[in-house]
Amino acid sequence: MAEQQTIHRLYRLFADILEYPGHTDLAGQAKACADLTLAVSPEAATLLDEFRAFVEQTSPARLDELYTLTFDLQLVCYPYVGYHLFGESYKRGAFLARLNEGYRAHGFSAGNELPDHLGMILRFLSMNGEGDFSQTLVNEGVNPAVNKMAQSFGENGDNPYSGVIQALLLVLQERTKEGVNDD
User: Fold this and answer.
1) CATH number for 18
2) What is the number of structural domains in the chain?
3) What's the pLDDT tens digit per position in 69-127?
């Protein structure tokens, strides 16, 4: 039960970190995430600590700009799981519909955001991480999409968000390797 609560909190913290920085305590969120991640993946915790250090030394305006450049202007780093899985095809539309259906069945709403936004999916998982729908979403959706996102940073590994995506991937892979099932 405690491990389940930890992973739900990690999902929530990663969701917070991967949203537009605005006026949030991004450094505090990164620190909290790194602290919790340490038990799951020390390498992921190190990457999150590096991100936290960057955030502490960077102006809010520069953080906003970096986020926009990373996730909104470069399609390879688009934070939409369905896009990474299916591109802009009818299959993505079907995926969005299934996500909305699954969200409704669990009393969750994506609000004005597309349901396949990585942060939205992580928020959903932070509240509803158990069950077949959630496990399938992680294994067949989030895992492969985050892997593609991590690979997309290849030549631009100096982007601080590269470390966040890599840290999330490490956490997801560790949970998969251990065969963790939240049922």
Assistant:
1) 1.10.3480.10
2) 1
3) 999 887 668 899 999 999 889 999 999 999 999 999 999 999 999 999 999 999 999 99
